[in-house]
Amino acid sequence: MGIPHEKLLIKKLIGNKVHFIAWSLFIVYETLVIGLVYNIFGNPFTYLLHYAVIISFFYLLCEYLLPWSVNTKVSRWWRLPVALSIYLLGYIFFHYLADLLLIHTGAIVDEGKNPLNYQFVLKNIYRGLYFMGFSCGYFLIKERFKVRREQEILRQEHLNNIIEHQRTEQELSDTQNAYLKSQINPHFLFNTLDFIYHNIKGSPEIASEGIIHLSRLMRYAIDSDKQGKFINLGEELKHVETLLHLYRMRKNDNFNLKFEYGKETKHLTFIPLVLLTITENVLKHGDFSNRDHGACIRLYTDRENFYIESTNRTGNHSRSISSGKGIKNIHQRLIYAYGTDIVFQSNTDLLNQYSLNIRIPLKEIQKNSV
């Protein structure tokens, strides 16, 4: 706590030093000019006393009277004239007292006349207005710098708040993203172990192949965090194909699901586990009992957007037990990654036909291209 106070004291002393030098130069300049031009050099005590009055009223006006008069808008119209009048009358009066003191001490010659006369008043009004202008100018400059300092402090605080807000949002996004992915990962295991279990005795070759595919999927899901926030979409497309292959093995190709994507989608940079979760959701809740009503997962782009669409028929039982958590998680993750400009629509119609439509601006995806 001692360091800030020491810095403040040093700064104040430096500021006072500047004032002292400025006044000293002004007094020396004015004294020499008047003395050389008019060949008049007075008693040093005379200069000391009168300049003490000048300097005192200079700071009285700029440090107290002007702030008192202008810092309120309501009564500024009468306070400012009162402040300037107090300054000018006080300036004349104290110079009069200074002359009386100088006469009393013999520093100036007493000619038997009262120094408070017409000439004295005019001279001090002129000098008073002269230094009043300097004092008002100094006050305005100081107020100007004060306003600029306050604005700079506010700008800096605003900038710091923005930086802190962005940092907090990013940390929240990273934490939430990791949490959501940790919720998604177990789905791959629980939805395929049953298939392997039922084939491990009767069809060990199929079970062995299933274990290999499952291990690849699990390794990909578990290691997704290590790959970074974004991956090449082509990598996940391969694992979606692996997941579909597992289901075809389980159903003996007795289910109708089309997985379509354009070649351009392979090169997009995307957040991981979205497509796997959508595919797993279709396989988990889709009704494939009627081959005429199959499912479809489709990925494509146009000039401005990337589209993910899925359709599948659902049964009443599947819909009743579904919490929709996986789809909600996808929606949240996409917002965190690509902002609120995405379009995310899911709906189940009266014929139990479920559809999911996602549209993401390509410019948002390209910001994170690898």
From TrEMBL:
Organism superkingdom: Bacteria
Signal transduction histidine kinase internal region domain sequence ranges: 178-255
CC per GO annotation: membrane
Keyword Transmembrane helix: yes
UniProt keyword annotations, A-Z: Kinase, Membrane, Transferase, Transmembrane, Transmembrane helix
Pfam families, sorted: His_kinase
GO molecular function terms noted in the UniProt entry: phosphorelay sensor kinase activity
Coiled coil, from the record: none
InterPro entries, A to Z: Bact_2-comp_sensor_kinase, Sig_transdc_His_kin_internal
Record's keyword annotation contains Kinase: yes
TM segment ranges: 20-41, 47-66, 78-98, 125-141
PANTHER family: SENSOR HISTIDINE KINASE YPDA
Protein name (Swiss-Prot/TrEMBL): Histidine kinase
